[in-house]
Amino acid sequence: MSGSIELVQTTKVYDQVSVVDAINVKVEKGSYCCLLGPSGCGKSTTLRMIAGHEAVTEGDILLNDRNVTRLTPRQRGTAMMFQDYALFPHMNCLDNVSYGLKVSGVSKLVRYEQANEMLSLVNMAEHANKFPGQLSGGQQQRIALARALICKPDVVLLDEPLSALDPFLRIQMRKELKQLQQKLGLTFIHVTHSQEEAFALADQAIVMSRGKIEQVGSPRAIFESPNTPFVANFIGGHNVLKASGSLEFLSNRVVNPDSDDALLEANLSFSVRADHITTQPRSDKDIVVKADVISTEFQAQFYLLECVLEDGQSITCYQPEESFDVHLISSGKSLYLYWPQERINTFRC
Ligand SMILES: Nc1ncnc2c1ncn2[C@@H]1O[C@H](COP(=O)(O)OP(=O)(O)OP(=O)(O)O)[C@@H](O)[C@H]1O
């Protein structure tokens, strides 16, 4: 069975500091949720509180609307997969995977039968008798996952599960994680500091900073319209600019007539995606601003241009590879940058 998780004013205080500060969020059952944020923002502490490995200082944790805040990890219906996999080195794969059933008193025959099923599920059946030291990083991860799944959890909690793998394997394994989650229909909550990983996997991403939630939504919704300057900077691909100096002419402009809060106030920040800025106008209604090129970087399908406005604000944009002309665009040259007014994102918080 799959489970929903709800955090209600959930708080963790260490040494009088709230490292998780009264957060409220609901993760729907059967969804793939990624907890995303920079190092030290409180993601692992949040995950450990959901798992029951860390006591909650204040607030509650609900699993399928049942308050599990004071229950032990085994009473909750969650299973955790650790960053270093935490496999027992002296046990073979079959014993590692069946360990959770052994401590629950399940007979050897039954637990081996179920462990073999789990090993087949993660494509590791032929490695049942091997020890962790004889496995690759990706194989160890599959065993750790099988071990987490064997107790039929409602929610699977994964703490940086891909961080020990090389970049190629990381991409391979993240596909496998997603496929498995979809096949089993379980709720997965996955901690990562990688925006790329979260965006590739998540139905719902939760962006955290300094113990608080900055934004919750689908990766696409977050990328389309980041709520705060922090989110825009952290997810990348966005310019955070001020409607002052070189962009003073934008202040007090209504940037999106369909929205009430879309007046661009003087001196306040806004964001515009790097891929929405061009070096050629697409319409005579485009915003236009003069900039100096600081550097250009070839990134296969496009060039990344780093520029500076006359007032010193930095701005980046992508130039399609086929239209990049090194004689016109190189460091030290001046050019005009354009973007449609409706592409301006005003921050909600
Ligand atoms: N046992 C502890 N005692 C005191 N402070 C702690 C303890 N565990 C974590 N912290 C602090 O709580 C804050 C949040 O830590 P946490 O591990 O949740 O962050 P994180 O976002 O998962 O970071 P990372 O990506 O580096 O693992 C950090 O400032 C950390 O130093």
TrEMBL record:
Signal sequence, start to end: none
ATP-binding among keywords: yes
Keyword tags: ATP-binding, Nucleotide-binding, Transport
ABC transporter domain sequence ranges: 5-235
Pfam families according to UniProt: ABC_tran (PF00005)
InterPro entries per record: AAA+_ATPase, ABC_SmlMolc_Importer, ABC_transporter-like_ATP-bd, ABC_transporter-like_CS, Mo/tungstate-bd_C_term_dom, P-loop_NTPase
A biological-process GO annotation: quaternary ammonium group transport
Molecular function per GO: ATP binding; ATP hydrolysis activity
Protein name stated in the entry: Polyamine-transporting ATPase
